[in-house]
Amino acid sequence: MALGVEDVLEENRLDYMHTLVKVVLTADLPKLVVCGHVYEDTRKGSLLNMWLWAADTLVKMGLAEYLSKPPSTTLLMQLEWKEKNNPGEIQPLPKHFYVEWAREVEKGNTEAAKRLADILTIRMMKIVALAAKRLDGEVVRKLTPEEEALYREVYATVDKWNKSFREAGI
Questions:
Q1: Average per-residue pLDDT in the chain?
Q2: For the whole model, what pTM was predicted?
Q3: How many CB atoms lie within 10 A of CB 76?
Q4: What is the CATH number of domain 70-167?
């Protein structure tokens, strides 16, 4: 049985938290142990590659800073424009798109929250329409895991609905 949208959302969030990121230490640390991986004699300014969840902890403690900058809301504006101006086409998104942007919204980025809500609504309407037409293949490769779960649920519902009419002789 396929996972539901909530399960897929949580699975994708956990996958994202286990992506590798680079941080720069802002303090000397004689020894750092992260899930059995030992970083020894690390100095302020040292560059470390670690899981996002571990990096988050170091950043919150003031011991490190992310090497990469947060995503720009300009990207959201561009995506929103493309989605609105191409009603018959859904734009491809990276696997962790929603998870990454949800982190920005949690930090209080209100512009990102508004644009993300608009993008979510536009894409949801497109996904429902595509699933109702029972299109598959290439379109699914453009969806995030969460969107694909929605697509599969709508597709199955539409298929069941159509089947009930066929069985009734309509």
A1: 90
A2: 0.79
A3: 22
A4: 1.20.58.1030
